[in-house]
Amino acid sequence: MKYFFVLGNNPTLSIAEITTVFSGQSIIVNDQILILDSLENIQPSQVITRLGGTIKLGVINSQVDRKNYKKILKNILQLIEKKEIVGKFKFGISCYGVDTINEKKLGLTIKKNLQDKGISCRWVVSNEATLSSVVVEQNKLIDKGMEIILIKINNKILIGQTLAVQPFKQLSFRDYGRPARDDLSGMLPPKLAQIMLNLAKIKPNYTILDPFCGSGTILTEAMLINSQNVIGADISSKAIKDTKKNIEWITTNYKLPIINYQLFNVDVTQILKHVQANSIDAIVTEPYLGPQRGKIKIEQVVKELNNLYSQTLIEFDKILKSTGRIVMVWPVFCSHQELRHLNPILNNFKIINPILKNLQQDKRIKLTERNTIIYGREQQKIWREIVILEKFTY
Fold first, then answer.
1. Where are the beta strands (DSSP E) in the chain?
2. Are residues 142 and 210 in the same domain?
3. pLDDT single digits (tens) 332-353
4. Which of 111, 208, 239, 367 is deepest in the core (most CB within 10 A)?
5. Radius of gyration (Cα) for the chain, nearest Å?
6. pTM
7. pLDDT recorded at residue 111
8. Domain boundary residue, one of 149, 166, 183
9. How many structural domains is the chain composed of?
10. Which domain CATH number covers 155?
């Protein structure tokens, strides 16, 4: 079955996440859409809560020549006919890369056809080129209506329907509703924590470590995807208290079962005193990124962080299993439109390209020269570099 994924603000990161989680033939249609031809029976409403980098998820129902308007209309009407309609039917249309269809004409024609059949309906529109997940959710187009998706690919139009949208309310709740926050130090967004956990290829029985746990975002997001063994550590006693408070909060609010978690108030160089050697399946973490306020002496900060991260990777080598994976953030400093990267000593590790080989040559994939992904916004002084590491196999 063919599924479409509407990608987030960083398409490369979204693509890396999707293709890590799912097997199957993937095609990048444009900067907004990835098509996955999968033998897996994907459960959209469950999957969308796990993917931090996907805005919408749906299924492709048919394929039509892009200039055959009558066939496109016919297929859309046949798709709507399969829907069990109760009460007023709302529908929306989102076109991705389609330049041969008058969307207003199409919407009005669909509306007239439905009304001629005695169906009370409303065509949902917005000021944007495509309907946002908020508009789709607020108008209940998933459960009680339909968002029709048209995607141009070569000389064809793919016709599909949205089956799930990103749970923006829940993500906001977990970000801003948690009891312990540290805005001064900066906090990892839950969406990015989800992506990093997926890039780590974690399984429920894995032991996961975040040795710079901060307020516990990575640990709580891991718990939400049924991770049974999580360990957090931080040099800050406040961070450990905040993490514990947030774990208790997430457990209560999401009615999670009792989970085996451990928290240690310890410097990363001392982690081996609390964690057994070669016992960790995955390390997912955002370490200290340097000063977040005031004027930054970039060269000095880069030197200090290179030393810290080099020492950190030495410790990671001792505790990570030979088959384990590290997903971590390295800061990228933006100064006068130039980017300053870190270059810590990798010790016994190598950087892994997160993009499937058959997609790596696509010009829409934006990787650094060392196969990492940059995550950030133009106005930010410090961007995030997502780095995936594995041990060398000799």
1. 2-7, 25-28, 33-37, 54-65, 89-96, 121-124, 146-153, 156-165, 207-210, 229-234, 260-265, 280-285, 320-335, 338-340, 349-351, 373-375, 382-391
2. no
3. 998 777 889 999 999 899 999 9
4. 208
5. 23
6. 0.95
7. 97
8. 166
9. 2
10. 3.30.2130.30
